[in-house]
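Exercise 3.2. Students should predict the tertiary structure of the chain below and write it as structure tokens, then compare their answer with the key that follows.

Predict this chain's 3D structure.
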Amino acid sequence: MFSVALGGIILDEATISYLGFGIPPPQPSWGGMLSLEGKKYMLQAPWLALWPGISLAVVIYGINMFGDALRDLLDPSLRGGVGRYGWLFKRNKAKKS
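Answer key:
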């Protein structure tokens, strides 16, 4: 739940900054980059708006995948008490014996 909430918080901050109610302009923000400078040059240089949007999506996706991997590793209700990767640990023990 923490990783999903963290991704939502980052997206909320970017949305509020895009609308102009977020972090003041001297401080960097993905929403501010898309809103202030991005709107001025969107027709001449569309990549100025593309890179902050892509980086925002990649960071949120990465946080969600990291949280999912931690859940898979640490959730005892999944296979064998070691999560989804229990087969890997069991196979390594068998090789060592």
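Discussion points: The radius of gyration is 20 Å. The chain has one domain: 2-96.
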